[in-house]
Write a structure and sequence with these properties.
Elements: H1 30-42, E1 46-47, E2 53-54, H2 58-72, H3 77-84, E3 116-120, E4 126-130, H4 138-152, E5 166-168, H5 173-178, E6 182-184, E7 192-195, H6 197-200
Antiparallel strand pairs: 1-2, 3-4, 5-7, 6-7
Helix pairs in contact: 1-2, 1-4, 2-3
């Protein structure tokens, strides 16, 4: 259930954007905006056998990236997120995962929720199978939404070993190494986190 919207080809934020206002559109609350990003980048939490939910450390680490980037470019973290993640923020609704931008705080089914899924086969083909209904994910999404609120209130903090400016998936590692990003451990995450050398000298 992951999709690297901010972190794809350029390992997040590799371009420098203007701090001018982005296109008009519905503006999510900070909690909803962060929860959407976390759902997009790290998926929904898993239910533990003993009860409760298992969260990775990606969500607070992602907020650390956005806050640090906002400081470096004289923007709020939310403005920084909107500038670089227009799809998740509801400004560019395209593609098979456009439903991420329609996740709502009340847990209602997001527009565009898939009805089928593709299962890759060894011969290069794919089987089409029914996708699980939204009701199978509703509780996990609501748990993630509440988790995002805890992150924003400082109740859950990223265990990063230093400041972070970027994140990316396994497909971004070669590029990250090539452009000299410094790996930063942020606890148990599904993404990799980095610090730009050009920002390392100005961590505050």
């Amino acid at each position: 259930m992951r999709n690297h919207i901010v972190a794809t080809a350029a390992v997040v934020f590799a371009l420098v954007a203007s701090s001018a206002a982005v296109a008009d559109g519905p503006r999510a609350s900070e909690q909803l905006a962060l929860a959407r990003l976390c759902a997009s980048e790290a998926g929904f939490p898993e239910r533990r056998e003993e009860g409760g939910w298992r969260f990775y450390d990606d969500c607070p680490a992602i907020l650390s990236v956005l806050r640090f980037g906002g400081q470096q470019m004289d923007m709020t973290w939310l403005g920084f997120a909107r500038a670089y993640s227009r799809r998740v923020m509801g400004q560019t609704i395209t593609g098979p995962r456009a439903w991420v931008a329609h996740l709502q705080a009340d847990g209602s089914e997001p527009s565009g929720w898939p009805t089928t899924t593709l299962i890759p086969q060894r011969d290069g083909t794919a089987l089409v199978r029914p996708h699980a209904p939204w009701r199978a994910y509703r509780e996990a999404w609501r748990a993630l939404y509440e988790h995002a609120g805890q992150v924003l209130r400082g109740e859950v903090v990223a265990p990063c070993e230093g400041p972070v400016s970027d994140w990316g998936g396994s497909m971004d590692r070669q590029r990250a190494e090539r452009i000299g990003l410094i790996p930063v451990v942020c606890g148990t995450t599904q993404n990799d986190f980095y610090l730009r050398p050009s920002w390392a000298a100005n961590p505050d």
